[in-house]
Amino acid sequence: MIDLPTVIGHRGAAAYAPENTLASLACAAEMGCKWVEFDVHLTRDDVPVVIHDRNLKRTTGMDAMIDDIHSSQLTEIDAGSWLDPMWSGERIPTLAQALDACRVLGLMPNIEIKEEVSGRRAAARAVAETVRERWPADLPRPLVSSFSLRVLYHMRTLAAEIPLGLLMWQKVPRFWTLHARVLRCASIHVDRTLLSPSLVAKAKRHGRKLAVYVVNETPDADGFLAQGVDSMFSDKPDLLSNQGAAESTLEAASV
Question: Largest alpha-carbon pair distance within the chain?
Answer without folding.
Answer: 57
